[in-house]
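[Q] Does anyone have a clean C-alpha cell version of this?
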Amino acid sequence: MSPEVISIGALLVMFVVGTVLPINLGILAFVATFAVGTASLGLTEDQIFEGFPADLFVTIVGVTYLFSIARRNGTIDLLVAYGVRLVRGKVALLPWVLFLVAALLTAFGTFTPAAVAILVPIGMNFAHRYHINPLVTGMMVISGAHAGAFSPIAVSGALVLGMVEDTRLHLAPATLFAASFAINFVLSLLTFLLLRNRRAPLAEPDEAGTPAADSSEQAGTNWRQWLTIACLAALVTGALAFDLEIGFLALGAGALLALVDMKRQEKAVEGISWSTMLLVAGMMTYIAMLERAGVIEDISRSAAGMGTPLLVALLLCFTVAITSAFASSTAILTAIIPIAVPLLLSSHLSVAGFIAALAVCTTIVDTSPFSTNGALVLSNARGVDARRFYRQVIGYTGGIVAFGPIVAWGALVLPWS
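[A] Here you go.
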C-alpha cells in the first residue's frame, strides 16, 4: 500500500474516531504522526516533530491568556459596551462591524491570523454578553479577514501577485481582490441570514465559567482596566505597525497585568484553552509531516493530471480546500500556484478566474478548528458546550469544503474560460 493511501487513510480514521468518541483529536494525531512517519514514510523523530507549530502555540496561548485577564478585570465589559454604543444599541449589527474592521485590517497589510487574533476574543465576548450566536460572530470575523486579504498591499495578495509575475501570465490586482471580497461577503451574508437565530450549544451552569469581572469592579473604570486598554493598544500597534510576533507581545502584556493583579494570576492561566491547543498542534504536526514527505504535493499533481482543463480546475479547487482545512493556507497557496501555471499556459482557462478561485478555496476553509483562525474562535468561545460547539464548527467547515469550491469554480472559472 502506498504511503499516500496510508497517510490519508490514517487521517480519515482519526478524524472519525476523534469526532465520534470523547477523545482529543490532537492525541490521535500525535500518535499517528509517529506511527505513519516512522513506519511508512521513513522519517526520523527529529524530522517528524520539525512540523510542530511553535509559533501557533505561542499565539494561541498568549492571546487567550491576555484576554482571560482582560475579561476577569472588567476591561472586556468596557469594550463590549463601547461597541454597542457604536451601533447605537443594534447588537445584531455587531458581527458586521467586526467583518468590516477585519477586512480593513487585512486589506492594509495585517496578516490574517493577527487580525483574527485581535478581533475574535472581543467578538466572542460580544456574542456571550448579548446572546449572539458565537458561530456567526466567529465565522464572520474570519470571512472579513479573508475578504481583505488579497488586496495588492496585503500579505496574501502580494504573495499571489508576486508568484504570478514570475511567469508569463498576467493577473490584475483589482480582480483578485474583488473576487475574494465578493465571495467572502456573500458567505458572511448567508451565514448571518441562516444561522443568526440558531441557538448556541450552551454549557451547563457549572461549566459556563466565571463572570466577566468581579462585581466590585463593575461600577467604574479603574487603573488596572486603563492599563489593560493601554496593553491592548500596544499589542495592536506592535502587531500592525512593527510586524512583531503577536503571541510574544500578548504574553508580555499578560505577565505585566498579572504582576499588578496577583490575585487573578492563577485563574487567568486557567483561561488558556489547552484542549484546543492540543487539538491544533497535533493535527498541524501530522500535516506538516505529510508536506515534508511530499505526500501533499503528490496528491495535488495527481489531481492535475486528470481529465479536461475545466475538470482539473475543479479538482484542484477541491484539493486545496480539503488540504487547507488541515494545514497552512499560505503554504498551500505557495505549493498550488506553480502546479496551476502549466495548466493555464496549455489551456483556455481564465488566468484571473482560476488563480482567484484557488486563492478563495484555500482561505475560506480557515474556519476549520485545525487552522489558526478556527482554533482562535474555538478557544475564545464563552458559555458554550465546548464539544458541541466544536462539532458546529466542524459542520460549518464541512459545508464550505463541500460547496465552496463548486461556487468559486462556477463563479470565477467556468463563465470566463
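[Q] Thanks! Anything notable?
[A] Confidence is low (pLDDT under 50) at residues 206-219.
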